[in-house]
Amino acid sequence: HRDVLVSYLQIPEKNWYVVSVIPQQTLTEPMQKLAVTGGLILIGCLGMIVFFIQIYLRQVANPIRRIADGFRDLQANRLDTSQHLSVPRTLDEISELVRWFNNFLDTMAARHRAEEELRKAIAVADHANQAKSEFLANMSHEIRTPMNAIIGMTQLALDCKDPAELRNLINKANHSAELLLGIINDILDFSKIEAGKLAVEHI
What is the pTM of this model? Predict the structure, then answer.
């Protein structure tokens, strides 16, 4: 009740047949053992390959991919500079690359802060320039009014023959000159304030 393999060979000179009967199990057992051993070795090799692939992904591929994603986010202007990469404990080249990328993130964060401060400073300067422009526009009007009064009164005084009227015109020109001097002093005070040289007195 066993499977066998039968082979034969005819010998013509003797009219004999040489027959060999081999149980199939004697041939398949070593093959089965070899297959089991080879399968175990293959499974072990596959496990080692998976293990080393995991190490490679964790230590090499993932940091490089995250660095590439970071540069892609930087190009798209959506990079979060506070998200630093964890530095691998092995593979000095990859660790150095990750440290360099983290330093790059710190530099970009400092640059963003500087740009924000610069934008605020520009806004303040624009506001100050606008205030200066408004101030100069108002001051030019305030200066022109008493100056026109002084010029007009002095021209009338040159043509006036009546001493009383002449005195009245000179008084008005003097009053306008005092107003003009007050405006000029205010302008000088503003200049001193801007230069930080204004002396404050308590009166």
Answer: 0.42
